[in-house]
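U., I forgot to send this yesterday:
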Amino acid sequence: MDISKGEARRIALAAQGFGRRWPEQPSGRHLRSVAAQLNLFQIDSVNVLTRAHYLPAFSRLGGYDQALLESDAWGPLRRRRMFEYWAHEASLLPLDLHPLLRWRMARAERGEIGYQALRRFAVERRAEADAVLERITAEGPLAAADFESGSSRSGWWEWSDVKHALEWLFWSGRITTATRRGSFARLYDLTERVIPPAVMGLPTPSAEEAQRALIERSARSLGVATPSDLRDYFRLKPAEADHAIADLAEDGVLVPVRVEGWSQKAWMHRDAGVPRRVRGTALLAPFDPLIWERARTERLFGFRYRIEIYVSQERRKHGYYVLPFLMDEALVARVDLKADRQAGVLLAHRITLEPTAPGDTLDRLRIELDRMAAWLGLEGVRVGVVLSSE
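Result:
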């Protein structure tokens, strides 16, 4: 099957939940629907605007109550709907994904994955990790800072070692995030004290079965994708994903397609919708799944995007925390945003328009900025400079 670039964009946008009418009052049910469609919210602690995991739902629902996400992720255990784990980087995931990631936890527990300092805790430094685990078992949820030398409990080894031990226990699924406190610090607890028993009791599929299910979810969330796109969604290696792609293709779940201008083979989920048009506007977090894979963003939208928070100020081209602006079926601008909470305003330091931006781009962007300001509890918007991209 041959599909045009425009069709590929519309398929991808629909699969990601764009083009729908926003609910007047987004509820927990709406939020969970977005979470189920995307499969995860990537976590990021940068708070110059708001933390990135809050933004994808706003981009698709409008002004929802952030407390709904916090309750689902870190609220009372009886109301917990999500958990934290490494999926596409650190992520918030619906609970039904827990069984599908146990193979990754088992490999981490055996020291087969993770960076070198982490893997050592699976073998030669396991006793130290067990000591950390014993303290959490006895005392309940603890943050990494609770293990610092010089605290009321002295005798712990180097501070970086404690963090590595906690991270290995987290990767291996023995502990998870009970809640967050202060400046977004994790409080770790035993997984069985955080994940509901009904979820913990679900059967554990084989690694191959779980990988197939993850690739199928990736395909649903992406709509149309290359093999590398499908692998990237849950950070699967070729050996973990290619067998699943082949199986799903054989069963007709993945349909081979040729996308105009794409050099790689592509697959479309058999249930993917192909809308005639997509309308709407959205400011996109740097880690929104529509754009987090930068090569795919270029293929779909002809839009080269890089986050510049780690670049020195004099080398930044577009700004510190830049959100692409989606208008209908195109990325038409970049907005360097900051929530100035002290002044009560949303600062758009710099707006950079794409060469193909339509004439009404700034008017529609201003509406979206006003919506965002209201959602963040800010009184208004202040715009700095407006530039045209060369």
